[in-house]
Write a structure and sequence with these properties.
Strand content: 5-15%
Shape: rod-shaped
Helix content: 40-55%
Number of strands: 27
Strand order of the largest sheet: 10-9-11-12-13-16-17-18
Largest sheet: 8 strands, mixed
Number of helices: 24
Structural class: alpha/beta
């Protein structure tokens, strides 16, 4: 026997087994026609594989007949062949024949049967075979099968596909959906008109999510279909997330007694996982439902069945209450009216080509046909032959009929296109198609695109898979005229599910739960329980965290805070000191009063500029001092105004400038007085730089230090406004605020005032030193009182300012404290130094008369006498009552109008 090229690569023992098997079939083929196959003659022969019978008991390959999945589907192929052969436009002048085999729902038996399809491809050496008369034998050539329609179960298709690919025979399945068959490297000659279970598994994952379930178990029949389907479901659910698998249970291929009761017990171990994803054959589905009924679990489990369940009645017959609410999936299909008419017209007389039809007839009508040699059975009604399908028996078109017809038509369209390309103008099978090249035919099969029997497109992708289109069913028993399956949605790349049309046990419309842990609230993250990946604890995202995803909390950006439900971030509100704020009312009121009072005094001094009182006050320094006080009051408005580049620049400039001007002028005054009277103790020569011009120059020299420092600061770091989110970042994010302010820290603010504070302290020191000067000669004591009060104000300011640094109202308290302190210190200077003078100028002009001037010599004499009197008074207090013999009586200075000496004017009262 000559082996085909692929077999030459097999090991020797495998080739031996193959040759023995092929020899058996050659002999059987030579002797008689296959007794368990249907033969339809034609120019081109197609193979067919259908589960006409169920699995038999141990030792017997075939069991009871399968009316729907077997006979309906087989008749659908015969119907399609009739339609194609009668169509003048499809394969004209050519007829399609068939060799149809029964797989008995068993993969090993199907493999044995499928060897029939490759008989014609095995070259037989008959050179040594002779008839009794010495002549060579005449051996009929078996029909050549160019393509196979089937099989049904994925396990059967996988087994058969491994053989057919060796002989390059294309195969189109009408029901095999295992994802494994999408591997184009291993099953390159396999195609299917139904979508793979990877699409079905995705649809089932979408259904589970739509129902709000996140904890389910899976149940699979052992074999490629069940195991591959569950594997696809588990993988997709893991990749997409949101669905956890409590248990994955496998039903053995040959289950032992009590096996299904054990399955139910195992499912009850995770009772929260009420949703059961089931990829199983009809028999296993029925036995699982029976076990659930025995365990009194009716209504507990929520079944989600694959297309093997679909909309079939047989798996749930007499188990309707257990199956109530079950959600099933089935490739989108339509009932083919032409097939209904064809099948219901079938009878024993007109359907003799179907060798299984008599057996179907007996099972469908529950009667017994009379056979030659058979003993009559009086317990069973005899078949009359007059029974009619759909009239005398229940009939509903099986769900895969459409796909069987589409598979046959796909093969026919591929042959038609191939004939048009290879045999143009030929009326039949030409030499280019005889023998048929299976690899070329496969390319034409993958290229077909036509509207199928239900009007939907029939096409294949590069792996031979059809597009995924599914109908979603639910078995309902209430609120309908009759219990049955109801279409509740579709899946075509995405799910469309009508939740409002769903009903559950007892007609309840509320979706039952199938969860291990309740879903977390908004703003809570899941903390998985170690070792139990389907369960979790819920933890609130606290502080400034928001829920980034279901497992993680993340901090909001620094300028944002979490929303009330903590699922997102929102901007932190920005605050600033408003003009109408209660914190701003008092500073503004004091500043306005101070500005009005200062303006009034300046106007008064200008109006009475040449009067003795104004001249005696030191006009030049007075105007400088009043200008500084005016700026101190004015800075309040810049501190309250909305921060901006200009406002921030003026804050830097005027915050320390007004105080520097004021205290520089006061310092110059006290220093002048102190130096005059100190010099008078030593000599009659006046000290230097005591003239008005010198005093103004000294004052502006002191002021220039502050101005230069601020200008350098403005140049090195240009002013700008900032939003400080840290200042009021409270533990509770609901109270967090961003503060709009100038780019001045508390330290820079103190540095800005530090020079003024130095001037103020120095001026206070000089005021203390000059306290012993006779009050008839100077205003050192009013200046001293002013400085003492100012120091007290600023000493109170420091703890208040820095003590409220952590307060939520820091911006308001500190701004108010600073402005009020500056206004009060300015008011003290104004009230003690100028209000008495203005009072005399305005209300007692008679006192505003010229007083006498005193020479520096007189001043020096007065200073010396004052010193001696002070010492004498001190000695008396210490108990020294003895008078010095040379001590002279010192009289008060002589009453003179003025004693002029240089430009010095020292006022007297």
């Amino acid at each position: 026997m000559r082996l085909p090229p692929p077999l030459l690569l097999w090991p020797q023992w495998m080739r031996l087994v193959w040759c023995l098997g092929a020899s058996v079939f050659m002999v059987r083929g030579q002797q008689t026609t296959q007794p368990h196959s249907i033969k339809i003659d034609g120019d081109i022969t197609l193979g067919g594989l259908f589960p006409v019978h169920a699995k038999g008991p141990a030792g017997i390959p075939c069991g009871e007949i399968k009316k729907e999945a077997g006979i309906h589907r087989m008749e659908a192929m015969l119907y399609a062949l009739d339609q194609i052969n009668s169509d003048p436009d499809l394969l004209p002048n050519m007829t399609l024949g068939a060799r149809i085999l029964d797989t008995c729902s068993r993969d090993t038996y199907a493999l044995e049967q499928s060897l029939t399809f490759v008989q014609a491809l095995i070259q037989k050496d008959t050179s040594d075979v002779r008839c009794s008369n010495g002549e060579p034998p005449i051996i009929s050539k078996p029909e050549r099968v160019v393509g196979v329609i089937g099989a049904s179960a994925s396990s059967v298709s996988i087994m058969v596909a491994n053989v057919l690919r060796l002989f390059a025979i294309p195969q189109i399945s009408y029901a095999s959906t295992a994802p494994e068959l999408s591997d184009n490297n291993r099953y390159d000659f396999f195609s299917r008109v139904v979508p793979p279970d990877s699409y079905q598994a995705q649809a089932m994952v979408d259904i589970v999510k739509a129902l709000g379930w996140n904890y389910v178990s899976t149940l699979a029949s052992e074999g490629n279909y069940g195991e591959s389907g569950v594997e696809a479901f588990v993988q997709i659910s893991r990749e997409s997330g949101g669905v956890c698998i409590a248990q994955s249970i496998k039903i053995p291929r040959e289950p032992r007694p009590g096996e299904f009761d054990k399955v139910i017990k195992r499912l009850l171990e995770t009772s929260n996982a009420r949703g059961i994803i089931i990829f199983a054959n009809e028999d296993d589905i029925k036995r699982v439902l029976e076990a659930a009924q025995r365990a009194n679990m009716t209504g507990h489990f929520l079944w989600v069945g694959s297309d093997s369940w679909g909309s079939k009645i047989s798996p749930i017959l007499r188990l309707e209450e257990v199956a109530e609410g079950s959600v099933t999936i089935l490739p989108k299909r339509a009932s083919i009216d032409g097939f209904d008419q064809y099948f219901m017209s079938r009878s024993l007389e007109n359907n003799r080509r179907n060798i299984y039809f008599a057996e179907f007839w007996e099972d469908d009508f529950q009667c017994k046909l009379t056979r030659l040699g058979a003993k009559p059975d009086g317990s069973v009604r005899k078949c009359t032959g007059e029974e009619r399908i759909g009239k005398d028996s229940l009939y509903e078109q099986e769900g895969k009929v459409q796909f069987v017809i589409d598979a046959v038509y796909a093969m026919a369209h591929a042959l038609h296109n191939m004939h048009n390309d290879l045999c143009p103008g030929s009326m039949g099978v030409c030499d280019q198609m005889d023998p048929m090249n299976g690899r070329k035919l496969l390319r034409y099969i993958r290229g077909v695109n036509f509207n199928g029997s239900a009007g939907t497109p029939v096409m294949f992708n590069e792996n031979g898979d059809a597009p995924g289109r599914y109908d979603i069913f639910q078995y309902q028993m209430t609120n309908s005229s009759a219990p049955g399956y109801k279409v509740i949605g579709q899946w075509t790349e995405y799910l469309r599910l009508n939740i409002e049309e769903m009903q559950w046990a007892g007609g309840d419309r509320e979706i039952p739960s199938s969860v291990c842990s309740l879903p977390c609230e908004a703003g809570e993250r899941k903390k998985m329980v170690k070792g139990v990946p389907c369960c979790w604890h819920c933890e609130l995202c606290d502080g400034y965290q928001y829920q980034m995803d279901e497992f993680n909390c993340e901090l909001c950006p620094f300028d944002m805070r979490p929303s009330p439900n903590r699922t997102a971030c929102r901007p932190i509100p920005i605050v600033k000191l408003e003009w109408h704020s209660p914190w701003a009312v008092l500073p503004i009121f004091l500043a306005i009063l101070g500005i009005l009072a200062t303006s009034f005094i300046i106007v008064t001094f200008i109006r009475f500029n040449d009067t003795p009182m104004v001249r005696a006050s030191g006009r030049e320094l007075s105007y400088v001092l009043l200008t500084g006080l005016f700026l101190i009051y004015s800075i309040t408005f810049f501190l309250i105004a909305e921060p901006g580049v200009i406002v921030c620049a003026f804050r830097r400039l005027f915050l320390g400038l007004g105080m520097s001007i004021s205290y520089a002028a006061l310092l110059t005054k006290t220093n002048r007085i102190y130096r005059i009277f100190e010099q008078g103790k030593k000599s009659v020569t006046p000290p230097r730089f005591i003239s008005p011009g010198s005093q103004v120059a000294i004052t502006f020299s002191l002021i220039s230090v502050q101005v230069v420092a601020v200008v350098v600061w403005l140049g090195v770091r240009p002013p700008h406004s900032v939003i400080d989110y840290e200042e009021q970042r409270t533990p509770n994010p609901e109270f967090a605020q961003g503060v709009l302010k100038c780019d001045m820290s508390d330290l820079s603010l103190i540095c800005c005032l530090s020079y003024s504070i130095v001037l103020m302290v120095t001026c206070t020191v000089y005021a203390i030193k000059a306290r012993g000067v006779p009050e008839n000669f100077n205003e050192a004591k009013p200046i001293g009182f002013t400085m003492y009060t100012t120091c007290i104000i600023w000493l109170a300011f420091v703890p208040i300012f820095f003590g409220t640094a952590q307060s939520a109202d820091k911006i308001y308290i500190q701004t108010t404290t600073l402005t009020v302190s500056m206004s009060l210190s300015a008011s003290v200077s104004l009230g003690m130094l100028y209000v008495p003078k203005v009072y005399i100028i305005v209300f007692h002009p008679e006192q505003n008369v010229q007083k006498r001037k005193r020479s520096f010599k007189a001043v020096a004499t007065a200073a010396t006498m004052s010193t001696r009197l002070s010492q004498k008074h001190s000695d008396r207090q210490n108990g020294e009552t003895k008078s010095a013999p040379d001590e002279k009586k010192v009289d008060s200075p002589p009453k003179m109008a003025y004693i002029k000496y240089t430009e010095l004017e020292i006022p007297m009262t």
